[in-house]
Structures are given as C-alpha cells and as structure tokens.
Amino acid sequence: QVQLVESGGGVVQPGTSLRLSCTTSGFTFSSYGMHWVRQAPGKGLEWVAVIFYDGTTTYYRDSVKGRFTISRDDSKDTLYLQMNSLRAEDTAVYYCTKGGHFFGYYSHYWGQGTLVTVSS
Amino acid sequence: ETVMTQSPATLSVSPGERVTLSCRASQDVITNVAWYQQKPGQAPRLLMSGESTRATGIPDRFSGSGSGTEFTLTISSLQSDDFAIYYCQQYNNWPQTFGQGTKVEIK
User: Fold this and answer.
1) Cα–Cα distance between B21 and A2 in angstroms, integer?
2) Antiparallel, parallel or unpaired: β A92-101 and A114-118
3) Is the pLDDT of residue B51 over 80?
4) Chain A, chain B: beta-carbon pairs less than 8 Å apart
5) In this structure, are residues A111 and A6 in contact, taking their beta carbons and an 8 Å threshold?
6) A21-30, A96-105, B5-14: which range is least confident on average?
7) C-alpha distance from A46 to closest chain B C-alpha (Å)
8) Helices and strands in chain B, H and E counts
9) Out of A106, B19, B90, B105, which could bridge B75 as a Cys pair, Cβ 3.0 to 4.6 Å?
C-alpha cells in the first residue's frame, strides 16, 4: 500500500533553515508528481509546491518562492523541501502528498505530516 | 490566483440526512476540482477528483458534480463517520488553491 512518511520538522527561530524529507513506498515514485501542502494550527489547507515526475518542473506558491525548494531523489524514493529564511507565518503541519498524475494534479495520498514551528 | 469559495462554513445535520456542499471558483477550472475529507488530528483524505471520480474505497453515498466555476459534493445519507471538514481544491491553475472548508457537524 502507498505510504508517505514525513520527517525533519521541529522548532526553529525566524530566519533559519530546515529541510523536510518524505520517504515513500508502495508505488513507482519516479512516475508521479509530488506535492507539499501545509496547514497552520486551526486553519485550512494551503498548497505549497509541486515537482513533476521527472524533476524538471516545479511550481511554488508566491509566499514561499525564492525561500523554499522542492526536490526529489528517485534513487531513494524520497521527496524534500528545503526551507530557508523561515518566518512565523510558515508555522504549520507540512504534508507530503502523492499526485494523481505525473504532473501532480490532485493529492491522491497524504502522509501524516510533520510540524514546523517558527518562533523566537 | 484562483479563489475557491465554499459554502456554508458550517452545516449542522442529523444522521441520515442528505447533504450538499458548494464550492465556487473565481475563474473557469473546467472539471479539475478535487474534494477532501479531514477529521480532527488526521491528514486529509481524497474523496473525489475530476469528473466525479470517487477515490478508492470511498462509498457511493458520496458524489460530485459541476464544471466551470460551480461545484457540489453531495452525501446522500449522512453517516456518523462523515462528520468532518470538507475541502474543495482546484488543480487547473498554478498555484493550486483550496477552499476554506465546510465543517459538517452533528445537529
């Protein structure tokens, strides 16, 4: 069965960096677009970034452009999110999701999430 | 970006009732809309995508309809397991965007 396990969350100070990882299994990782979606405490869902199946194309929401980088290592079936210059408003549970298509599309399967808290 | 507006924000219903949730897009998203269910403390789960395609394991009491800018998710007979928050999402344009959610609570 499809499994997505996020790691790397924690409490960090504003302006610092963090790298999230998402280890996957149960599907052909290299054939699917992958997303990061976040949810601030008590708030709704917010799409963050996507990387297409071949790693050649990425898209980001405006508020993280230039600060976050999504990447993938198909040899390890693992998705990453490098987060730099973190702000208090980046505080959220970050979910790794498997797209429904090689270009991503909807989020077919979700991990359980990893909490990132940005606070001084 | 495409704004997704869900209504109502909260719906109080009794088990067995028929429920209709609405989602409106600020521009044409064709049929590239998905619906998710989220229960407290859990990750969201995909219910529907595209032209009313139910995800694996989703019971047939859930159905979706709509195209262009108007979409609905219908639960034909609400079960106790269905009390949750429901989100719509458009994946036609970047950035993808979610609605703010509709909470379905017990009346």
Assistant:
1) 29
2) antiparallel
3) no
4) 57
5) yes
6) A96-105
7) 7
8) 0, 11
9) B19
